[in-house]
Amino acid sequence: MDCVAQPDGQLRPFMGGSPFNMARAAALRGADVGYLNPLSTDYFGDQLAQQLLRDKVLALSARSALPTSLAVVQITNGQPSYGFYREGVADRDYTPDSILKVLRTAGSPGVLHTGSLALVPPEHEKVLAVVNGAKALGWTISVDVNLRPKLASNMALYRAAVLELASLADWLKASDEDWATLGLGELTLAQADSAIQFFTARGVKRLALTFGAEGAHLNVDGQTASQAAPKVQVVDTVGAGDTFWGNCLADWAMDTEGAGQRVANTLENAMLAAAINCSRPGCQPPTFSELEQSRTQ
After folding, report:
1. Looking at residue 202, which CATH number applies to its domain?
2. Cis? peptide before 109, omega within 30° of 0
3. pLDDT of residue 74
4. Is position 152 within any domain?
5. HSE of 274 in the Cβ direction (CA atoms, 13 Å)?
6. Which structural domain range is residue 279 located in?
7. How far is CA 85 from CA 42, 69, 274, in A?
8. pLDDT tens digits for 243-266?
9. How far is residue 252's CA from residue 263's CA, in Å, rounded to a whole number?
10. pTM for the model
11. How do the residues of the chain divide into helix, strand and coil, expressed in percent and rounded to 5?
């Protein structure tokens, strides 16, 4: 749950968390989505469960008696900074075997998404076990790097964990801030080629690089597109990257053929969805019908 600081000093709760946001964005785009992390039986967990139900995301794990994890969000000039409360919380109350059991019974393999806080050691050990097991079952692996250095007691171990997970990813999203935090230097949209080569050499087949207000670059099966960010009145940028990536994954999952040929269209839709989200407080991804309506305005 994102607890966003208000001008009067109060904290206003917004439903959030990177995988939660991404799942909602993909479902609102029209994809069939299941959410694997356990939700708490507390009040916030009830709210999160109800939101998933409204957005037609299927909660796949049993509820946990542990509390909902919290992020305290301070927004300055539209840009969020985060403090996290992540010990003894519901979304970490799982075992690799419990997740893999769900994946085995899901029918045909689909796309398994992970990233963000799940990549912070020692949590990444459980995620590695899940990802390796899922790959053996034929699942496509999606990773959103989304680095959170404040949570890392050892940045060298954190960077190594992220790169190990990235080497297992089929599809991956990273921002210019992620690139810098990995110790790889500064990156601009015009310099995207260096990051493309870095990640594709590690086996990534579909790659999104985001640059905030500057725009984004999408590389899909060797076909590329870049686009500047649409102009929008920004309320905040909470969940913008999640909305962007959720729309990309939904596009690919819903239409598995010709993804490279429609890379520019996929990028345009994802950028527009992220822009609409930025015009709203907290993470509120648009539906596909809202995307279509926004083009006529």
Report:
1. 3.40.1190.20
2. no
3. 84
4. yes
5. 31
6. 18-27+95-295
7. 15, 6, 26
8. 999 999 999 999 999 999 999 999
9. 10
10. 0.93
11. 45, 20, 35
